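Sequence design from tokenized structure. All designs in this work follow the same two-part layout: the structure record, then the generated sequence. An example of the structure record is given first.
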């Protein structure tokens, strides 16, 4: 597959570079590579396709992925869509969140630059970049958050959320809740020893990105204000971050 340069992001300090942010990638490789990310975020080998194809009507490839998720968990379509999305949004967001926290430079996970490959086992999907491109900016004044919003949320995630809603009527707010969780969970769970105030940094990231993810997580409790719908399946317990468990807290 020929490698193409991703479109430049107007008005942002996005630059094409030889490698994506690499510091945390090297550290992850030393301790066991995250299964949903291709080593080095490189789309090597066969079976890759651009994420943009999933959002193209009539959503055939996306529909098949959701159907497979539904069969695996015996879930109705809207629940299957939410569960598939939770995995997809997590793996496409993880390199952005970790790079924001550790390097203040993020890979450009746009719809055309994000590549996907199915896996036979969990997490069922692997993510890479078509072309190694990253953008930098000031995290304090929201410049880097705006870049994340423009690339990851608006270009990659928003069209897919609309496609899932069209296919299954899955709720948009719940799907955006999974993106919000994917942005902050790595900062607290994986980068906590690298940051002076992980929960504060996570809140800064959510606020700087803004838009549909702002206000969807309770911090420092790391609790969602939406549900990924896993708990609606028979015999399944609520996730540790689920809003459903809020009633179990003292005083509620």
């Amino acid at each position: 597959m020929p490698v193409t340069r991703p479109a430049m992001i107007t008005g942002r300090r996005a630059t094409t570079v030889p490698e994506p942010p690499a510091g945390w990638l090297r550290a992850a490789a030393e301790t066991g590579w995250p299964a949903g990310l291709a080593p080095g975020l490189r789309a090597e080998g066969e079976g890759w396709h651009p994420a943009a194809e999933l959002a193209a009507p009539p959503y055939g490839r996306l529909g098949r992925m959701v159907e497979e998720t539904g069969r695996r968990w015996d879930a109705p379509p809207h629940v299957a869509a939410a569960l598939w999305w939770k995995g997809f949004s997590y793996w496409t967001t993880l390199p952005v969140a970790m790079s924001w926290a550790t390097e203040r430079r993020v890979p450009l996970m746009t719809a055309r630059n994000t590549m996907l490959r199915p896996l036979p086992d969990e997490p069922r999907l692997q993510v890479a970049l078509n072309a190694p491109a990253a953008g930098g900016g000031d995290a304090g004044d929201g410049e880097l958050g705006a870049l994340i919003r423009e690339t990851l949320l608006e270009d990659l995630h928003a069209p897919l959320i609309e496609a899932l809603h069209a296919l299954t009527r899955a709720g948009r707010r719940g799907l955006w809740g999974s993106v919000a969780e994917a942005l902050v969970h790595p900062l607290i769970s994986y980068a906590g020893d690298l940051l002076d105030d992980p929960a504060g940094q996570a809140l800064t990231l959510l606020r700087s990105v803004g838009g549909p993810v702002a206000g969807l997580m309770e911090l420092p409790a790391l609790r969602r204000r939406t549900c990924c719908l896993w708990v609606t399946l028979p015999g399944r317990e609520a996730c540790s971050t689920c809003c459903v468990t809020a009633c179990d807290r003292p005083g509620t």
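The chain has one domain: 15-219. We note this feature because it recurs in several other targets discussed in the main text.
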